[in-house]
Design a protein that fits this description.
By secondary structure, this protein is α+β, with helices and mostly antiparallel strands. The chain has a single domain, classed as Roll (PH-domain like), CATH 2.30.29.30. Helix content is 25%, strand content 38%. It is built from two helices and seven strands. It has a four-stranded antiparallel sheet with strand order 1-2-3-4, sandwiched between helices. The protein has a three-stranded antiparallel sheet with strand order 5-6-7, covered by helices on one side.
Length: 128
């Protein structure tokens, strides 16, 4: 754990560096799933996608979504060794491809994300 209490020790070096740059104070990593060309990270506040080579892409290397109403992540089917996650936010749609050997980890991340969004929505009194 780094001095700010953000657990990034288990992340690969380049991913950990990119995540440390964007984590807020007291924000912690809950799940991290390696995907094809990126790593999907769930914190206690946000969903992050850290593209491979994020340090070379300062504007597009890290995508983020707050865990609140409007965020929807859908898990597709696994075909030919790869499954897809689709992130919907308003009109923005992002697809992430995960190898079948990490698919269960991806499904756990989606379940945790949905629970956190539901709690966030219930706290505001809005419907998802």
């Amino acid at each position: 754990m780094d001095p700010a209490g953000r657990a990034t020790d288990h992340l690969p070096g380049a991913v950990a560096a990119a995540v440390k740059d964007v984590l807020h104070a007291e924000e912690t990593v809950v799940h991290a799933v390696p995907a094809i060309g990126c790593t999907v990270i769930l914190t206690d506040r946000r969903l992050l996608i850290v593209r491979d080579g994020a340090s070379f892409r300062p504007r597009t290397g890290v995508r983020e979504w707050a865990l609140r109403a409007g965020l929807n992540v859908r898990a597709g089917l696994v075909r030919q060794g790869t499954g897809s996650l689709v992130v919907h936010w308003d009109r923005d749609v992002t697809s992430i491809f995960v190898r079948s050997d990490r698919w269960n980890d991806a499904l756990e991340l989606v379940d945790e994300l949905r629970g956190r969004v539901r709690i966030s929505v219930e706290g505001t009194g809005r419907t998802p």
